[in-house]
């Protein structure tokens, strides 16, 4: 699908002018899924899904590298560190190559991506260094890369008649380069040949389907898909060890040959005698699944699919240490909540058609719950969530932050108290008015709870998809009440998403058939949908937000609409939404035209942060007439343009973006208004000549009046706050930079009762 539209052509200038400042960003990546490992003489390197880390074997210091540092967010497929050149090579599934230089700078190499071949066969599988040249094994063949000049050399298409074939691994041995291919045997050529680009130079030594080839001492070995380890006898590869599982990784380091399967690591000496076997059942703390392994300085480092990097000694002490940096359970965070001092995260979810079976496999997933607290991640493991699957949204009791409710789009409503899941509301314990299972599929139980919100009296409202009574409330007396939502559509076809409650107590919730609104005082449901019934661009609504002016912002799969006031529920029989029209080069354009909008969040200055399915994040002004910022994978540390969820910490203004490939945050300055002026702060102070940013004034009341004057009382700036923070560009009403000196900041509440005076020194 295509989501770009003409109105955003002018954003090119915004992206070019964007100053990438990593200090404005924080990263929250998972380092649990290890794709590959590499090593130097004193350091192990590990690649997770789209980030790296390394650990010193001497100091135990751990260093991370991710999108904040300049890595792309794509999926890593291979990793190699050259000790001779002190450079780290990172290969990606799409053919991208990243070089991390000794000074930490990052070089992006797109030669493979730009090759005129099928884009589905550009994956980088392996790196092998020989005399300063790295042979890059790809899904189409082999490519040379010079580590001294940082330039690509020849490309070898080594299949029959020069065909593109999938090369899994290469190694240079006794004057020949050997290439293990996935479906076309093991092929070799004379490494000194000046014509390796000629496919006739590559002789097929053994037919078959191969996973890897490696040299150790005087031996050349290979593994195939029949789970056999083969040794080369000078003319062909002969099987000599049968493994019980498919080999996943084959490598040599420090005189040890390491073969990794899903449940075992086999280590052999140069004579190919096994010296150690490590089984997953020896690691009692977790149910590990191995992906790769290497040996450094008498230690074995094992990559796993879900438990990060694990190490143990070669003497088989069965003492295992977990090395991965602290992070969430997975990168694909589906829902977040940053409304308190902690960040809560769940890992999903459902697909675009609200099917929990197809989100991450073929059945509803079972993951734990993440909580970022005191600068580190704490995990409630999946074994403790009472079997709740497809966790989608997080709702925190505003009067008790230790009481958290997690919506499950398959199992009901999970209650967590003091970080311990203690109750799962479902059809078995909440009848007849609580969560219900869908009834139109015989002998199948699925309790699909999604949007949830607390009202002013402490009642918890939830949506229950695909049942007759789609709106329910858990009252403070722990009793349930339900409301029928089948007036507009067949309940079997109703899927609900977000739910918000306005100042009048009206419940607004999204669905695949438009926006629904309900207030129990009138007991009336109303709907906003397409055409004459509400003017939505699509009835498939994913998100809603009520801003500081009580407007309802509506995100659909085909664009944006705004309801002028939530009071329309009380006055209009049929509420109608409107598009936001902006002018671009004299032409009227619809804001967010045809965009698949996944989330809308309002910050303390009433600006809107809008997440999309494929186009990143937009920050627009309070009325939508200005696009203040746009973040994508090309101009920011966003690891993906596919945004699952956005939330804002109301105290700090930090904006969190949960994407399909990891979470990052932007240190915004728009905060929620305070109750008084006791905590007003001005920074930086003083403003020194080398500083080119703005002065921030935080801790304000909403709609506070701010006047800034020079020491003689001449007014240079005046504004009214929207939220708890304002910024001053140190100019006199935007005309010119003010001179050096002390400037007075006079702050007064909207009613004039509370006031505050601060000072700031400007040094030019």
UniProtKB/TrEMBL annotation:
Residue intervals of the PorZ N-terminal beta-propeller domain: 44-202
One Pfam family here: PorZ_N_b_propeller
Coiled-coil residue windows: none
Gene3D superfamilies associated with the record: YVTN repeat-like/Quinoprotein amine dehydrogenase
InterPro entries in the cross-refs: PorZ_N, Quinoprotein_ADH-like_sf, Secre_tail, WD40/YVTN_repeat-like_dom_sf
Keywords: Signal
Official protein name in the record: Ligand-binding sensor domain-containing protein
């Amino acid at each position: 699908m295509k989501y770009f539209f003409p109105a955003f052509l002018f954003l090119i200038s915004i992206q070019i002018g964007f100053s990438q400042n990593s200090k404005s960003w924080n990263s929250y990546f998972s380092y649990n899924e290890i794709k590959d490992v590499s090593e130097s003489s004193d350091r192990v390197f590990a690649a997770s899904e789209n980030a790296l880390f390394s650990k010193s074997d001497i100091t135990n210091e751990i260093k991370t590298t991710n999108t904040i540092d300049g890595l792309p967010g794509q999926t890593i497929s291979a990793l190699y560190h050259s000790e001779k050149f002190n450079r780290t090579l990172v290969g990606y599934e799409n053919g991208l190559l990243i070089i991390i230089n000794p000074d930490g700078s990052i070089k992006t190499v797109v030669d493979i991506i730009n090759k005129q071949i099928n884009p589905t066969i550009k994956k980088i599988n392996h790196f092998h260094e020989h005399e300063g040249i790295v042979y890059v094994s790809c899904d189409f063949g082999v490519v040379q890369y010079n580590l001294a000049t940082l330039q690509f050399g020849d490309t070898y298409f080594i299949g029959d008649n020069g065909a593109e074939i999938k090369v899994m691994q290469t190694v240079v041995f006794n004057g020949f380069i050997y290439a293990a291919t996935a479906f076309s045997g093991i092929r070799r050529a004379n490494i000194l040949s000046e014509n390796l680009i000629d496919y006739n130079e590559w002789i097929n030594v053994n037919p078959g389907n191969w996973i890897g080839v490696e040299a150790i001492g005087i031996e050349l070995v290979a593994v195939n898909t029949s789970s056999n380890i083969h040794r080369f006898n000078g003319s062909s590869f002969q099987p000599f060890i049968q493994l019980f599982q498919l080999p996943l990784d084959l490598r040599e380091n420090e005189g040890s040959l390491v073969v990794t399967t899903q449940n075992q690591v086999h280590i052999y000496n140069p004579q190919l005698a096994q010296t150690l076997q490590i089984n997953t059942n020896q690691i009692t703390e977790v149910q590990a699944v191995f992906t790769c392994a290497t040996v450094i300085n008498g230690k074995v480092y094992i990559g796993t699919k879900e438990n990060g990097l694990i190490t143990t000694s070669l003497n088989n002490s069965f003492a295992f240490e977990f090395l991965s940096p602290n992070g969430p359970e997975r990168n694909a965070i589906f829902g977040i909540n940053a409304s308190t001092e902690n960040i809560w995260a769940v890992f999903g979810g459902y697909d675009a058609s609200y099917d929990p079976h197809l989100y991450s496999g073929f059945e509803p997933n079972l993951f734990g719950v993440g909580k970022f607290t005191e600068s580190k991640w704490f995990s409630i493991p999946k074994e403790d969530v009472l079997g709740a699957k497809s966790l989608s949204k997080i709702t925190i009791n505003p009067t008790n932050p230790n009481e958290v409710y997690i919506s499950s789009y398959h199992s009901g409503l999970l209650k967590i108290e003091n970080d311990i899941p203690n109750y799962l509301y479902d059809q078995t314990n909440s009848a007849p008015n609580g969560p219900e299972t869908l009834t139109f599929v015989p002998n199948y139980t699925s309790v699909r709870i999604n949007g949830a919100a607390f009202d002013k009296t402490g009642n918890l409202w939830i949506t229950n998809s695909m049942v007759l009574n789609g709106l329910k409330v858990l009252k403070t007396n722990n009793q349930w009440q339900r409301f029928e939502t089948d007036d507009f559509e067949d309940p079997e076809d109703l899927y609900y998403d977000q739910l918000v409650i306005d100042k009048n107590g009206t419940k607004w919730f999204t669905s695949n058939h438009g926006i629904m609104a309900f207030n129990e005082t009138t007991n009336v449901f109303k709907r906003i949908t397409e055409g004459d019934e509400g003017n939505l661009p699509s009835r498939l609504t994913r998100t809603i937000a009520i801003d500081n002016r009580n407007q309802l912002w509506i995100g659909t799969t085909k664009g944006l609409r705004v309801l002028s006031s939530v009071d329309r529920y009380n006055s209009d029989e049929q509420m109608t939404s409107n598009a936001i029209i902006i002018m671009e080069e004299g032409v009227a354009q619809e804001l967010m035209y045809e965009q698949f909008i996944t989330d809308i969040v309002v910050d303390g200055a009433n600006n809107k942060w809008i997440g999309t399915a494929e186009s990143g994040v937009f920050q627009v002004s309070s009325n939508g007439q200005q696009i203040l910022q746009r973040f994508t994978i090309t101009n920011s540390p966003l690891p993906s343009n596919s945004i699952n969820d956005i939330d804002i910490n109301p105290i700090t203004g930090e904006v969190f973006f949960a994407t399909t490939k990891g979470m990052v945050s932007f240190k915004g300055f728009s905060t929620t208004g305070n109750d008084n002026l006791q905590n007003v702060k001005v920074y930086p102070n003083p403003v020194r000549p080398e500083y080119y940013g703005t002065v921030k004034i935080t801790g304000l009341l909403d709609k506070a009046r701010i006047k800034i004057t020079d020491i003689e009382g001449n007014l240079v700036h005046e504004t009214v706050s929207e939220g708890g923070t304002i910024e001053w560009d140190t100019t006199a009403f935007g005309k010119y930079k003010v001179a050096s000196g002390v400037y007075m900041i006079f702050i007064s509440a909207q009613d004039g009762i509370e006031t505050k005076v601060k000072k700031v020194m400007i040094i030019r």
